[in-house]
Structure formats: C-alpha cells, structure tokens
Design goal:
The protein has helices at residues 6-27, 33-38, 45-56, 59-72, 78-93, 95-100, 106-114, 117-150, 156-205, 230-247, 252-258, 264-281, 285-295, 307-315, 318-354, 367-388, 394-418, 424-447, 454-460, 463-480, 489-497, 500-506. Helix 1 crosses helix 9, helix 10 (230-247) crosses helix 17 (394-418) and helix 13 (285-295) packs across helix 14. It is globular and about 70 Å long. With 507 residues, it is mainly α.
C-alpha cells in the first residue's frame, strides 16, 4: 500500500471499528420491539438532536454542497439554507403533534388519522421509494470516497457501508443507532472544522486570492445569486426553496426520530437544538467550495463531489496534508454510515409492518425478526442499484428525494394535523398526484443529462408545481367527499394539539 493512501485507509478502518463498537455497546439496551422501532420513546433532546444531525448530514451535505458551490456558485447556498430552515417549519407545524400521535411510522400516522388501509399502503410504498432514493447517493458517495482515499474500486464503498449498516441496524435497531449517530455528528463537524482552519490559514498566507476571479466562463457570476439565470434561474431557485423547506418534514428517517422523544415538548426542544447544530455545520462546506475555486479549479468540470476529499492534499504538502485528508475521509465515511443507518431503520420499520411481518417466503415473521428481515431488504436493494449506476450526482439525487417528500408527505402531514376535513379519498388523490408528478420528474432527470430549456427546468426541479398540485388535489377531493370525514377525526386532532401539561392535570 502506497504511503499516500495510508491515512485514508486508517480513517475508514477507525470509523468502521468505532461505529461497530458503539453499536455493539448500544445493543445491551435493545431488548423489545419498541427499542428497535423508536428506542422505547425515551431519547432526550440533546442526544436526539445530535443523532438527527448525524443522520441528516448526509453525503450531499458533506461532499455535495462544496462541489455544487465550486461549480455553480452562490445559487447553491440555497441547499444548506433550505435543509436547515426545513427544521424551522417542522418545529412550528409538525414536531409536537406528530409525537403526540403515538405512531411508530408515517404509515401508522396516516392510518390512525384517516382510518384507511389504502392510505397506509400508499404511504408505505412512498416511504420505501423515498428511502431508497435517498440511500442511493449514500452508497455512491461511499464508493467515491474509498476510490479517492485508497484507490479502491467504486463497488467496495457500497459493500462496506451496506455490511456495517446491516450489522448495526439488525443487531440493535433505533436504540443502538441513536448512540452511533450522535457520535458521528460530532465526528463530521470536527472532520470539516479542523482542516478548514488550516486551509484558511494557507489561503491567507498566499495573500487571500479572490475566488470569484478567473475560473471558467461564468466567473463573473459565480458569487452573484441568479447572476445569469434569468427567468429559468429564478424558477429553479424558488422550486429548490420549496423542496428543501417542505421536504424535510416528509423524509422518513427524519420523521421517525420525533417518535423517539418522550413527549411533544421534548420534540420541540430537540428541533431547536437541531437548528443550532445544522447551522454550525453548514457554515463549513461553502468554505471548501470557495477555496476550491482557487486551488482545485479543474474539479469544477469533472469530479466536483470529490472536492472536500482532494482539497487538503492539494493545498497542504507533506504529512500534514495526508493527515487532513484522512480526517475528512473519516468524516465523509461517517456521513454515509449515519445517514444510511437512519434511512434503513425508517424503511425497515415500514417493511416489517407491511411486508416481512405479514408474509416472508413461506413463513410469517413478527417483532424483531420481521424488522431484521426488512432491514436486509432496505439496505441490499439500493446498494445493488448504486453499484449498477454509479455516476448520478450525489447532491442532485438527494434534491430529488426532497422534492418527492415535499410533494407527498408534506401535504399529508400539514392537512392531517391542521385540517379536520381531510378524507382518505382526498389523501390518496393528493399523494398520487404529488407522487406521480415528482416521480416522473425523478425518472426523467435520472435518465437524461439535459439541463436547458423550460421542460428540463420544470422536471429537474418539480417542487414548485408538484407541491401545490398535491395540496390542491387533497383539498378539492376532500371537499367533494366531505361526508366521509372519519368519525374520530375530531378526537384525534384534540389528541394532537393538547399540551402534555393539560394531560398531566387531567390525570
């Protein structure tokens, strides 16, 4: 093994060993089915917020944002702004009521609110689809990281991440993964923060050259939002804002975390801490993107997702550069493991309730066994797809997952929590319109490289039209079927919106 790959190899091994060790330690706390699904609803706000930060800061956050800023400039800062601000919307409208619902998964909530197995089945399919779409870039990013760090074939990364995630998720479920993800948030923050200090010091020592000068034909517009976008650029920006602001509440691995809080008040406190943790982290990727304009301009045309991994070695010579490369490699690998773990738990929870827990070959599984079988399916399928199609952009795929989530579960949660008049027929119609519309855009985007023209723009960023279409459909169809509003809707909404202090006084 050459000396330039040793730090990366050591970093990957250490992160993997630490992840397995913490997961194994957490296993002793996992005994019941509730432990596997929602950690028996006992996770306190500080720990839960760190765990949410660990699973939410994915390959797109750790690698993709810096690459997008390098290539496209200031417009791409809407990604981290939207990904963070989505938790503000979640805090105000969804967090506490969702926890008070008592559900384990999004399909649980939909069935309890609307009393419909049909709505539940459709929600289950959407959870799996969104989860797999979000898992795909995690495995792709792992392949990219191991290729850049140690020269491994691109299929090695997905296989390693899939194996580690399967061991941790299958052994201890949510209870075990909570400790792992909390550790991985702080590792990722450190892995970007310490090298950033060194790289900025090198930049200052070089005379602090201006990153907006002399890189590509669009250099004049790099630091100006919508500098050359025109009407299409304005649409893309607003559609991206809609997708990221509203998509967060519909991401299965995010929503399931709020079921682990003891009560609605704790869910709100968790969200506030998450906002602070994400805000601190997202200050760092743009630094790498700006420095990349000066020291790694060639990556702007090819390989921009590798910028964070390559920049320390390009800017700092010798052992220090290799150590910094090893550190960012460790952070990147932690990002894939933590996000993949959270997504796998969310998808496995749904599969265990609606697929493996009902029929699995000739056997019927239940409880922990059904969860473990669901986890295997949740991990293996996207891992195989990532190996077969390794060239889809990391941040681009995650952005599409946000658009689908915003177009489906966001309308369902907002109307289900705040409007008594929602009916099962309205929910199914709205989910179908939002899911098919955004799903068509996802399929088109993944099979074509076309990025110019209004058709490409509308399909590349569908949230601005697919979200309003889904909400309007839910409202119109529910109005037309108002006689089928569930009889228990009023009581259920009282449960969602009654503060815990009132419950304590009544008890």
């Amino acid at each position: 093994m050459s000396t330039d790959v040793v730090p990366g190899f050591v970093a990957v091994v250490l992160v993997t060993v630490a992840t397995l060790a913490i997961g194994t330690w957490g296993l002793k706390f996992s005994r019941t089915t509730s432990d596997f699904f929602v950690a028996s609803r006992t996770v306190r706000p500080g720990l839960n917020a760190s765990a949410i930060g660990g699973e939410y800061l994915s390959a797109a956050s750790f690698l993709g944002v810096a690459g997008l800023v390098l290539t496209f400039g200031a417009d791409m800062l809407w990604y981290p702004v939207g990904w963070t601000a989505g938790y503000l919307v979640l805090l105000v409208l969804v967090a506490a009521p969702l926890r008070r619902s008592g559900a384990y998964t999004l399909p649980d909530f939909a069935e309890a609110r609307l009393g419909s197995r049909g709505v539940r089945a459709l929600c289950s399919m959407l959870v799996v689809a969104i989860g797999w779409l979000y898992l795909l870039p995690q495995f792709q990013g792992a392949g990219l990281t191991l290729k850049a760090a140690i020269g491994a074939p691109t299929w090695v990364g997905p296989m390693v991440v899939a194996l580690v995630v399967l061991i941790n998720v299958g052994s201890g479920g949510m209870r075990s993964i909570t400790f792992v993800q909390a550790f991985q948030y702080w590792l990722k923050l450190t892995a970007l923060l310490l090298p950033a200090f060194v790289l900025v010091a090198v930049w200052v020592g070089d005379g602090a050259p201006d990153p907006t000068i002399g890189v590509g034909a669009g250099a004049d517009y790099w630091s100006l939002p919508l500098g050359s976008g025109g009407g299409q650029g304005l649409y893309v920006t607003y559609s991206l804002i809609v997708a990221t602001f509203l998509g967060t509440m519909g991401l299965p691995h995010v929503v399931v975390r709020f079921y682990t809080n003891p009560d609605g008040r704790a869910a709100r406190r968790t969200t506030l801490v998450v906002l602070a943790l994400l805000g601190a982290f997202y200050l760092l990727p743009p630094v790498y993107g700006a420095l990349g304009r000066i020291y790694a301009a060639d990556l702007a045309t090819a390989g921009s997702d590798a910028l964070v991994l390559e920049l320390p070695r390009l800017m700092v010579d010798g052992l220090l550069g290799e150590v910094l490369t090893g550190l960012v490699t460790a952070g990147a690998f932690a990002a894939f493991l933590s996000t993949s773990s959270g997504l796998s738990i969310a998808v496995a929870g749904v599969l265990s309730q609606d697929v493996t827990g009902r029929h699995f070959g000739t056997h019927r599984l239940s409880g922990v066994a059904a969860f473990r079988a669901g986890a295997a399916i949740a991990v293996v399928v996207p891992a195989m797809v990532s190996i077969a199609a390794p060239d889809v952009g990391v941040a681009r795929t995650v952005g599409l997952a946000f658009a689908v989530a915003a177009s489906t579960f966001c309308p369902l949660l907002l109307l289900g929590i705040w409007w008594r008049g929602l009916t099962a027929a309205g929910a199914i119609a709205g989910l179908a319109v939002g899911g098919l519309g955004s799903g068509l855009a996802v399929g088109w985007t993944l099979v074509t490289s076309e990025t110019t023209g209004w058709v490409a723009v509308l399909l590349g960023q569908p949230a601005a039209w697919s979200v309003p279409a889904a909400i309007a459909t839910m409202v119109v169809v529910s109005r037309a079927t108002h006689s089928r509003v569930p009889a228990h809707a009023g009581r259920f909404m009282v449960r969602l919106h009654t503060p815990e202090s009132v419950d304590l006084q009544r008890s």
